[in-house]
């Protein structure tokens, strides 16, 4: 008998290519810069809260809406843009998110009252909310299988860079102008990325295959093979029977499909995003205020928070090194729980200046081990037609948690439990989410992306 030679699929070819910095690395860098500006914008909320509180004489509850409006906009944007990315394409969605974000962020600098400012921050957040889920789908679908865990984890190295730039650039601009508007106007920079997105990023071939756009998919795959110097091979492009279209009900249809794919996986992912990001965003947005209340000067508080973000780059690199060795779930579990414990200790020693900086830096490193692993893990759990939506809905849950959570944290939990007690309560929720992950969700290390 003659054995028929196996013909790989187009997606298998893409996932088996060698990694080249001038091919897949270019997409990693452009996607990472979009992620960096997401971090910059979110971290900017922590700087704007004390500045606008003084200028507009805001109560703690009113000031919380500076971050809450922005994050609730991100929550809405996360699942709307993620659905758009799964229905019409990664590249188109990524381009639109950056444009909306840059326009309405700059518009916020023209406001003179908290209500208008919060509305514009909500719309800017809506634009930016889709950047992370679309980023991870786009970068993951171009990345070779054996490098995917490290590359997707390394994506989060852009977050501490953006977050640190928010602190350091804002401190520099405030020293020159003593006005909150220049730090906000600096966020026009993401608009420049649109040029490079249009010129340097092709549409995801896995998305094109899923939409039966075979001519376009073959062109992208052939160009990737040629650019990486790989010997061309024969491959097949599957014809998909079920190709969902963009429609008014697409967002909720994608939500139904995400839960139908695996309610166990989706529940575990939502719990992780809800709890881990709640704890992180409280620390990111309110640490400058907590430090100033403990006696730190304004510039010192901003620089300390910037240091927390900057050291996170080390954490992201540690996660990149360990993620394929330990597996996703064990590394995520240890780092998420340890980070929560460190915040409780920090809260207890907030009035001991010598202890604050070391604790802030250690926390900043540990939490940036947990978050990139969580993002890489979530982006691997769903098939191509649900990858952006699965991540997007989980991101939306985290943004709602991060938006409303800090408001409840400073107005209810801290007065009732003290700062250390409030962080301990939040840390307990993280432990429950980690247990759910081990019980409900599979390990993804070494697996092919599902089609």
UniProtKB/TrEMBL annotation:
Subcellular location: Cell membrane
Membrane topology note: Multi-pass membrane protein
PROSITE patterns: MFS (PS50850), SUGAR_TRANSPORT_2 (PS00217)
Primary location class: membrane
Domain spans labelled Major facilitator superfamily (MFS) profile: 27-445
Keywords: Membrane, Transmembrane, Transmembrane helix, Transport
Ranges that cross the membrane: 27-52, 64-85, 92-112, 118-138, 158-178, 184-201, 261-281, 301-323, 330-350, 356-378, 390-410, 416-441
Entry-linked SUPFAM superfamilies: MFS general substrate transporter
Entry annotated with the keyword Magnesium: no
Pfam families, per database record: Sugar_tr (PF00083)
The keyword ATP-binding is annotated on this UniProt entry: no
Protein name: MFS transporter
Origin species: Yaniella flava
């Amino acid at each position: 008998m003659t054995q028929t030679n196996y013909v790989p699929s187009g997606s298998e070819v893409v996932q088996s290519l060698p990694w080249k910095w001038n091919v897949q690395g270019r997409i990693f860098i452009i996607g990472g810069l979009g992620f960096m500006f997401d971090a910059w914008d979110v971290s900017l909320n922590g700087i704007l809260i004390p500045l606008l509180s003084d200028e507009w004489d805001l109560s703690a509850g009113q000031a919380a809406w500076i971050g809450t409006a922005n994050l609730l906009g991100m929550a809405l944007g996360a699942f709307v843009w993620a659905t758009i990315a799964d229905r019409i394409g990664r590249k188109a969605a990524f381009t639109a998110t950056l444009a909306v974000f840059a326009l309405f962020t700059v518009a916020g600098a023209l406001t003179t009252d908290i209500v208008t400012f919060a509305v514009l921050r909500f719309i800017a957040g809506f634009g930016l909310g889709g950047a992370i889920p679309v980023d991870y789908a786009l970068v993951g679908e171009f990345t070779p299988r054996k490098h995917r865990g490290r590359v997707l984890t390394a994506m989060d190295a852009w977050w501490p860079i953006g977050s640190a730039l928010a602190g350091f650039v804002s401190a520099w601009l405030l020293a020159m102008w003593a006005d909150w508007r220049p730090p906000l106007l600096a966020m026009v920079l993401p608009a420049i990325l649109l040029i490079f997105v249009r010129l340097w990023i092709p549409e995801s071939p896995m998305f094109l295959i899923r939409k039966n756009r075979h001519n376009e998919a073959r062109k992208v795959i052939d160009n990737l093979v040629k650019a990486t110097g790989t010997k061309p091979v024969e491959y097949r492009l599957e014809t998909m029977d079920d190709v969902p279209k963009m429609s008014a009900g697409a967002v909720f249809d994608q939500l139904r499909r995400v839960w139908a794919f695996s309610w166990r996986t989706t529940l575990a992912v939502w719990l992780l995003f809800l709890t881990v990001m709640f704890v992180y965003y409280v620390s990111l947005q309110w640490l400058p205020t907590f430090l100033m209340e403990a006696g730190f000067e304004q510039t010192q508080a901003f620089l300390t928070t910037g240091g927390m973000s900057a050291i996170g780059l080390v954490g992201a690199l540690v996660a990149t090194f360990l993620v394929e060795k330990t597996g996703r779930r064990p590394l995520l579990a240890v780092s998420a729980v340890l980070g929560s414990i460190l915040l409780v200790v920090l809260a207890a020693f907030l009035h001991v200046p010598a202890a604050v900086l070391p604790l802030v830096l250690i926390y900043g490193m540990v939490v940036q081990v947990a978050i990139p692993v969580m993002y890489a893990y979530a982006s691997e759990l769903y098939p191509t037609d649900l990858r952006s939506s699965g991540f997007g809905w989980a991101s939306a849950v985290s943004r709602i948690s991060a938006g409303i959570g800090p408001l409840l944290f400073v107005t209810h939990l801290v007065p009732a439990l003290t700062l250390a007690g409030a962080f301990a309560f939040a840390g307990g929720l993280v432990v429950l989410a980690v247990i759910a992950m081990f019980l409900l969700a599979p390990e993804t290390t070494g697996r092919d992306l599902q089609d």
